[in-house]
Here is the input.
Amino acid sequence: MNDSIYATVDEIAKFPDKYGFLQKYIAEHLIFPDISRESGICGTVYVRFVITSTGEVINLEVLKGVDPLYDIEALKVIVSLPDFEPGKVKGISVNSYYAIPIKFILN
Here is the structure.
């Protein structure tokens, strides 16, 4: 098995259709920490992870955080993601990076 992680692929990893849109899934599973909400903190946490050649989500990291509690919550949501359809290079499933912003906005 090739352990390389691709930053660029021919076909990007895809969130499974049966769960709807990725951002909607995240919004439905995201929990605002009360103490951060009460402090009025808001912003966007940028998270990067690897989608393996079998679709598993691994190697999570916060690229740019907002608040430690929000950063932890963003990672919790990413850990809960179902397996993706893996990215492909020349038709072969590969390990690839995936980055996403997770917004914490107070209403």
